Amino acid sequence: MVIGRTDQIPGGTLGGGMIMSASSNPWSAAFAFIVVLAGSTLSWLITACSPGNGAIEGDAGLDGDVIQDAATSLTIARGIVDESFGNGGVVIDHGASGGGEHVYGYDVKVNSQGNYIVAGQTYTGTGGEDVAIWNYLPDGTPNLSFGHNGLVVGNGFGGGRQDNAWDMVLTPTDQILIAGRTQDSSFQYDMFVCRYTPEGILDQSFSQLGYQVHNNAAGGNNYDSGYTIALDSLGRVVVGGGSMGLSEGGDGIDGPLNSDLAVWVFTPEGEFDQTFGSNHDGIFVHSDVLGVNAAERATCVTTDPAGRILLAGYGRDPEGFSQIPVWRLTSDGRLDDSFSDDGFLVERNLVGVVGNDSSGAIAVDQNGKIWVLGATTNANGNADMVILRYDDYGHRDLSFNGTGLMVVDNVAGGRSHDAVGSIVFDANGNAVIGGVSVDAQSWGVVFLARYSPAGEPDLSFGPDGTGIVTTGADYSNDCRLMSLALDRDGVHLVGTGYCLNENNYYDMALWRFE
C-alpha cells in the first residue's frame, strides 16, 4: 500500500509516498508520521497498489505521539448510476465507422491510466462487420490520443468482409488483446486474435503481423471462432471457443451443429505455445461432452493462481437442448482429472425443468471458489438468472446459499427472461454481477446486484433498498449489459453493452456506477 501525496495538518506534515505492508482479512499495518501535533485530528486515505481493492479512509485524534480513537472504513460501490459520467451516467456511440447501423459493446476493461477500453463491433453499412475499440477518459470523453479521435476500427484479418470482436484482455503494459472470428476469402469463419498498442496501433511485434488466424482446430475445416480470452500467470494468451468437428452437421449455436470445444494458447510474442496440447501445437480440442455429435464451445475463460485454465460454455445436446459444460485444463493442455474426476462437468435442468441452460461468465474468487453465471429455463419457459459455485475439486460449494446454486426469477421486474453475463469482486469479497432482465415484449433493462460470499443479497446496494440497480438510456426501451469492470479506485463500476435507438439499430453504451 502507498500513503498518498503529502498532506497538511495543523502545525506539521504527514510524509507522503511511504510504503507499508499490510495483511488481509482483516488488513493491519503500521506506519509513522513525520510530525504529530497533540490535539489535532488527522485523516488519511490509503490506496492499494493493485487496482480494485477499494479506498481505505480513516481519521483519528492525536495525543502526543499516540493516535487516539482511530476509525477506518473501506469504501465500496453504493450501487447508483454516476450521473457525472457522460450524459447522465452513460456514453453512447451511434455509428462508430460511419455505417449508420448497429454498433455493439461486448467487453470493457480499465487500463493502468484509469481509462475505459471498450471492444465490440460495428456494421459498415455495406454488409460488412468490423472490430471496434474505444478509449474513454474517466469523465466519459473520448481519449483523442488513441486511434482516430478515441476509436480504432479493424478489419480484413482473414481476408473477408466480416470481423467480430467477442472478448478482450489487457496486458500489464496496456496492450489490447482481442479474440473473435474473421471471415476468409472462402466465406468460412476462422478464429483470430490480435494485439494493439496502448495508442491503438496494430502491434506487429505480435506474430509479425499483429494478429493470428487459425482454422480447422477440430478437423472439420469449416468453422472456428474465439469467444473468450485471458492471460495466464506466464503471460500466455489463452483463447477459448469452438471448432467444427469431422462429421457433417447443420447450423447451430452460431456455428456447426457438431462443433467441439477448442482452446488456443499463444506465447506473449503471438506464436503457438508448443508446450501446450497433446500434439505440442498450442491447441486443445474436446468433443462429445453432451453426447455424440453434440455441439460444445467455450463462452468464458479464466485462469487460477496455479496456472490452470477454467472454461464454461454453452452446448446443444442431440435432443436440441442447451446445457452448461465446465472444463478445467492443466497449464500444459490436459484435462485436469482432479476437477470433478474427469476434468469437466455438465449442468442441466437446474430447476428441474427440461429446457435450456447457458453460461455467460466464469471467475475464481480470492478464496479459490469457482463461480459460473448464466441462465436456466423455468417452468414457464422463461430464463432465470443462475449462479453456481464450486470448490477446487469441482463439487458444488454448499457454503454458498446452502446448495452451491442460486436461481433468481424476475431480477429487475422483467417478468420474462433474466440472464447474467459478468462478475467482479469488490474489496470485501462480495460478488457484483451484471446482466439483463427482459420483459414479455422482449425489452431489456440493465441490472447490477451484489451478493456476499455466502450468497446473501446485499440490500444496501442500489438506491432503493432492493439490492438492485437498474439503468438503460433515456431514448431507448431496450438495453443489454454485456460486460462489467471494477475501476482502479475499487469503488466505481463500468459496464458496456448496447441500446436500441429510434431507427431500430443498436448503439454501443458505456455506463458508470458509484
From TrEMBL:
The UniProt record lists the keyword Translocase: no
Q: Does the keyword Transmembrane helix apply?
A: yes
Q: Which UniProt keywords apply?
A: Membrane, Transmembrane, Transmembrane helix
Transmembrane region positions?
A: 27-46
Q: Name one Pfam family in it.
A: DUF5122
Task: Output the NCBIfam families linked to this UniProt entry.
Answer: delta_60_rpt
Annotated protein name in UniProt: Bulb-type lectin domain-containing protein
